[in-house]
Amino acid sequence: MSITTTHERRPLVPGRRAVSSERSRRLQRVATTTGLRLIVPALILAAWWTGSRAETAGLFVADPFETFTRVRTDFLAAGEGHAFLGDATWDHLFPGVWRALQGLGLAVVVGVGIGIALGRNRILMALFQPLIHLGRSLPSPALVGVFFFVFGTGDSPKVFLIAFSVVWPILFNTIDGVSSIGAARMQAAAVFKINRWDRLVHIVLPGAAPKIFAGMRTAMSLSLIIMIISELQKSQNGLGYLLIQSQRNFDYTGFWAVLVVLAILGVVMNIIFTIIERRVLAWHRGATQQHD
Predict the structure, then answer these.
(1) Share of residues in the chain with pLDDT > 70 (%)
(2) Angle, CA 156 vertex, CA 92 and CA 93 arms, to 5°
(3) What is the reported pLDDT for 244?
(4) Could you tell me what percent of the chain has a pLDDT over 90?
(5) How many other C-beta atoms lie within 10 A of the C-beta of residue 269?
(6) Given this model, what pLDDT does residue 228 score?
(7) Are 193 and 93 contacting, i.e. CB atoms less than 8 angstroms apart?
(8) pLDDT band (50, 70, 90) for residue 79
(9) E strand segments, 214-283
(10) 132-145: average pLDDT
(11) What's the pLDDT score for residue 292?
(12) pTM to 2 decimal places
């Protein structure tokens, strides 16, 4: 008769405990970060609601709950006919955003192209530097009438005004980025007899890309501001047009609803731009981490 003893085998818990504790710490960090980010918006909403309840300011400051209701009724739709978007979105939001994107795209093409040419040629930079500083010093809102006089009253003057206003941060950041490329890399390219196009695509543009994207981020924010300014005069649609009409009709709830839509639009565009920037500059972030 043999006596057999069995020993219970228990899994190694320390590893699982470490993983679970790491997950709990991550969740705690996410919850803390989210809570901190919600503090300022909550304070703004509280101050907004308090201002709407004041005797004097309440005449001009709409109630936040009524404002968000107005955003839903004007810019969103209950049916599927217009992709759940209201008439104000199709008639005013999309045309204005399209003009802003056109102006921003034109500014990127012109700013990057001229910036590369000036950044790589000191003689051209010396020739055109006074003209560039003169153009940058001109206040864009004061040129609204000039652009309407030159290009007419359609979408063209608005697009060109946006492009003229936002091209400067892209231009100067491109010049700075191209100029900051080390001479050693260009000399190595010359030694290996790399042609100009390959130098531009594989050396100049990648080296200047971080600063170019920084200028594009600033230009994107400015494009929304100039979009509103360009729509304040001689316009039949756009968010700026809605702002003027709501003021003339003493529709302060509609006025604040447009402001809310502008804030949401800015946040959405910034998120989209951040995603694009991270994907395009993923190589730069990895290289920077290696050298840290």
Answers:
(1) 85
(2) 15
(3) 93
(4) 42
(5) 19
(6) 94
(7) no
(8) low
(9) none
(10) 88
(11) 43
(12) 0.82
Instruction: Write the DSSP symbol of residue 11.
Output: P
Beta bridge partners of 76: 85
Cα within 13 Å of Cα(27), Cβ side: 6
Pull the structure tokens for residue 182: 């080390």
The angle at the Cα of 132, spanning 270 to 232, to the nearest 5 degrees, equals 50
Residue pointed to by tokens 């204005």: 96
Average pLDDT score, the chain: 84
Residue type, 183: A
Q: Which two tokens stand for residue 71?
A: 């955003």
Query: Distance between CA 219 and CA 208 in Å, rounded?
Result: 17
- Overall size of the chain counted in residues: 292
Q: Is residue 2 pLDDT above 50, yes or no?
A: no
Residue 122: C-alpha distances to residues 114, 136, 215 (Å): 13, 20, 21
Spatial neighbors of 60 by CB under 8 A, at least 6 apart, are 252
Mind listing the pLDDT tens digit for each residue in 199-209? Answer: 777 788 888 89
Burial of 67 (0-12, 13-18, 19+ CB in 10 A): buried
Around Cβ 242, how many Cβ atoms within 10 Å? 25
Question: What b/e readout covers 207-228, taking b as 16+ CB neighbours within 10 angstroms?
Answer: bbbbbbbbbbbebbebbbbbbb
160: left (phi over 0), alpha (psi -120 to 50) or beta: alpha
34 residue type, one letter? T
Q: Which residues of 170-194 are buried (b: 16+ CB within 10 A; e: fewer)?
A: bbbbbbbbbeebeeeebeebeeeee
Contact present, 228 and 42 (Cβ < 8 Å): no
The predicted-structure confidence for 238-248, as pLDDT tens digits, reads as follows 999 999 999 99
